[in-house]
Amino acid sequence: MFRKMTPLADLFRALADPTRLRIAQLARNMELTVGELAQVLEQSQPRVSRHVRILAEAGLLERNKEGSWVFVRFAGGRQAEAVGALIDAEPPVEDLERLEAVRHARVSAAEAYFDAHAQDWDRLRQLHVADSEVEAAILGLLSQRPIGRLLDVGTGTGRMLELLGDAAAEAVGIDRSADMLRAARGKLEAAGLGACPVRQGDMLTLPADGQSIDTVVLHHVLHFAERPGEAIKEAARVLAPGGRLLIADFAPHTREELRREHAHVRLGFADEAVDGWMHAAGLTARPPVHFEGALTVTIWLGEKPGGVATPEDQKKDFA
Length: 319
Known about the structure:
Layout: H1 8-15, H2 18-29, E1 32-33, H3 34-41, H4 45-57, E2 61-66, E3 69-74, H5 78-86, H6 93-125, H7 131-142, E4 149-153, H8 159-164, E5 170-175, H9 178-190, E6 198-200, E7 213-219, H10 228-238, E8 239-250, H11 257-262, H12 271-280, E9 284-285, E10 289-291, E11 297-303, H13 311-314
């Protein structure tokens, strides 16, 4: 969506309060919940919420509700970025120290989450080829031209953002699970990729304008979809001309335990089915790549016809 320009007097009035200036500076460092902001500022959550609301109304902050939590980050767009450059002096030392404590708590929580689920994930990984082989192929397929603006759908633990984030002009991950998003934030912070935001969202209603994304990735998420064709159609909607959709998932299999133990809705996909969904969504399907194993992993790549996105398309934002 295009952001409406805010009168300069309103922008500077919003930043005139010392606490709001501190909040804006902290949001420039990392995405935070209102509760975490209150912790860093050592102020009550209702008071911090009021300050956040004023900054958001001025177009300087964006708020994303995730269950009972509200995440705050510094807004995108040319006007907000220009203001951000003016306030990029470091926050007070005390704020930075408490911010580091928040970062450490996130990383520790993520490690605990991964430790608790590692056994289940390891059992699943033993059924298919090594992740490193599939990831090397993903990098090879996508490195043929710039990744541009990346949307990782069903980001899970944030692995695709970790793999591709440095090469993207902008990267955002979405997932329906608040628990997974909290784990992903901790993992990305530990990897030095805290600037890659993740947010709650659904693969059937992606938080992006039409023709605004250069690369969409669905990595081991399509098998959770009740309507995989609709998920591919929605991914195609947000792709810019020349944009690419990469899907990595299982080929057809008979492992019924994955339905019972891992909530898989679909037991893999045939090439013909994925190619058909891509064609119906207006994408040109490239030859798939298969990795044979007890569970065969396939990478499908589709491309939206057209050239490079126009400058006007590239100005569009994640919703």
